[in-house]
Design goal:
One of its GO terms (molecular function) is transferase activity. InterPro entries: CmoB (IPR010017), Mo5U34_MeTrfas-like (IPR027555), SAM-dependent_MTases_sf (IPR029063). The model has no long low-confidence stretch (mean pLDDT 95). The chain starts with a helix and ends in an 8-residue tail after the last strand. By secondary structure, the protein is an alpha/beta fold. It has helices spanning 5-11, 23-33, 38-46, 73-84, 107-114, 135-142, 155-168, 205-215, 255-264, 294-297, and strands spanning 57-58, 64-65, 91-92, 94-96, 99-101, 105-106, 125-129, 147-151, 174-177, 190-196, 216-227, 236-237, 252-253, 267-277, 298-299, 302-306, 314-322. β7, α6 and β8 form a beta-alpha-beta unit. α3 (38-46) packs parallel to α7. 28% of the residues lie in helices and 24% in strands. The strands form 5 sheets. Strands 9-8-7-10-11-17-14 form a 7-stranded mixed sheet, with helices on both faces. Strands 1-2-4-5 form a 4-stranded mixed sheet.
């Protein structure tokens, strides 16, 4: 069974230690609720991932763990088959002992757009909200972060992350907890908080921004990446039913509206540092993710529109700083 004891030990003497008052019971409840179904099957696969200590690790420029030279052709094939049991792989790519996991998203492209604009992560404690399989967490660690914590409630994403970590090194200070941000107490502890590709899935975007704020120390940095539309400060798209075939998209603001939301939540130094239209090369079907992808979500006669007739996905990255607390806002 996946356990979180090493995480508890690592934070016992840190500024996250008061989290231990509630976290073990929360995760214990999560484990009990997943005793049946697919999680036990995936855990059996994880237990088969016994491979030599990687002869090379690169999280700075990509996510490369080990090389094909350490394994025989048969061992590589077995590894590929085991990792293939965790499909669909959506965020990546990963190179693990010569097995190339070509994920649906070229998440490295997003990282390359974001990284030049953020404060150095050297020796920082970082939270990645909605981290998926953890690809960006490894890149954050590669930038020198002291500790990286990701939260995402998906059991599949947890198992994908655990598969990578078990091969890379179990004791690395990078952890994924199967939680939603709403289950986190106000920690006021993280130097940097990332929320990338989450805001438009929240029924209350303002509550989400406040939850992000509650995780940051005063002066800490928020990196928010989300879908946006063109328009002014009063423009927000509320899809009637689905957006790009997704039924859980609630609010897509303009950049100006998003900036106002952040200022309303008492973030300061709010600035948009990047706007990018998602391309068919960045999100697509692969051998590791065989389901529908972006091309299927767009109007086949006009890829500037979704199949529902809304503007095609455009993403903005906003950087902001947590200001001094305002007791009246609380």
């Amino acid at each position: 069974m996946i356990n979180f004891s090493s995480f508890y030990q690592q934070i016992a003497d840190s500024n996250l230690q008061h989290w231990l008052e509630d976290l073990p019971s929360i995760l214990g409840k999560w484990q009990r609720s997943h005793k049946h179904g697919t999680l036990p099957k995936w855990e059996k696969v994880l237990n088969k991932l016994n491979y030599p200590t990687p002869n090379t690790i690169n999280f700075k420029d990509s996510v490369i763990i080990g090389s094909g030279e350490q394994l025989s052709a048969g061992q590589q094939e077995k590894l590929a088959n085991l990792l293939g049991l965790f499909q669909p792989w959506r965020k990546g790519p990963f190179s693990i002992h010569g097995v190339e996991i070509d994920t649906e998203w070229r998440s490295d492209w997003k990282w390359d757009r974001v990284k030049p604009h953020i404060s150095s992560l050297e020796n920082r404690t970082v939270l990645d909200v909605g981290c998926g399989s953890g690809y960006h967490m490894w890149r954050m660690y590669g930038e020198g972060a002291k500790r990286v914590v990701g939260v995402d409630p998906s059991p599949l994403f947890l198992c994908q992350f655990e598969a990578v970590k078990r091969i890379a090194g179990k004791d690395l200070p990078v952890h994924l907890l199967p939680l939603g941000i709403e289950e986190l107490p106000p920690l006021d502890a993280f130097d940097t908080v990332f929320s990338m590709g989450v805001l438009y899935h929240r029924r209350s975007p303002i509550d989400h921004l406040m939850q992000l704020r509650d995780q940051l120390r005063t002066g800490g940095e928020l990196i928010l990446e989300t879908l946006v539309i063109d328009g002014g400060a009063d423009d927000v798209l509320v899809p009637i039913d689905r957006y790009g075939k997704m039924n859980n998209v609630w609010f897509i603001p303009s950049v100006d509206a998003l900036v106002l939301w952040l200022q309303k939540c008492e973030f300061i130094d709010v600035k948009c540092v990047d706007i990018d239209t998602t391309s068919l090369a960045e999100q697509r079907t692969t051998q590791w993710m065989k389901n529908e992808s972006l091309v299927d979500y767009l109007d086949p006669n006009d890829i500037s529109l979704t199949v529902e007739g809304y503007p095609a996905p455009k993403r903005a990255t906003i950087i902001a700083t947590k200001s001094q607390p305002n007791l009246e806002l609380k």
